[in-house]
What we know:
The protein has helices at 2-11, 63-73, 86-93, 126-133, 162-175, 199-206, 227-232, 257-269; strands spanning 37-41, 78-81, 99-102, 107-109, 117-118, 143-146, 150-154, 181-186, 189-194, 216-221, 239-243, 252-254.
Amino acid sequence: MKSELAEMALNQQRTKPDDMPEAVPVPHALVPHLDQTAILLDIDGTLLELMPTPREVWVPPGLSDTLNRLTERTSGALALVSGRSLNDIDLIFAPDVFSAVGGHGAELRLSVGDDAEDVPAPPLDKELKRRLAAIAKLSPGILLEDKGYSLALHYRLAPHAEKAIYEAVAVIRADLPNAPIEVLPGKFVCEIKHSGFTKATGVRELMTREPFKGRRPIFIGDDVTDETVFAIMPDMNGLAFSVGRRAMGVNGHFDTPNDVREFLARLLDDTRLD
């Protein structure tokens, strides 16, 4: 299992295989009228540039105004979809508050002013979390982030520790083969969460509720954890776009978060979408 987890992590850094279909740049003509659309957006690496530590991300000028105007134009059908907790999302975008799926699908807020709903998903076992947290001691530069429903080990400041981190996680999983956990390799992060919920389960629930119900979803994401949502977009007649890499099964891609922000701003300027 050690080698399998380490290989899983390394695969995320590889370029697309030769047989992967090319994703074309996002065709603006694909986007339906905003009054028929639900806009679903990952945060880190999608809306915002990745930073050395999770606390260093910042919201560029103009983005909050764009998101608020799109929320108004879609009658509230805009949501952030993130592995971050709702509290963390709110801190980043303060004083603005948006509808959101947080904690990889463990939390749901349908509209501004609503209380967050906990999807039936227990937090990680305390003893398991303690053992996983100890992995951060393997090397200076490994940053521990406790999200409640998950635990993230960031190693952007210690990239040399990647293999050791995944091997340590594999040892713990081997000791606890029945523990209901899932390992999520990301961009210089290894995240461990309770199994049974994903961003996709959160999005499915969101799309059964007003004001999202009956709309055509557009989802934009960048990481491995977003692939579960890419996969369900066809079931909803939705559109999926990747950022920074040409993921399988998407309708198009953006090169950078700045391209995503410019695309969202252009939606507001297109009278065809009124």
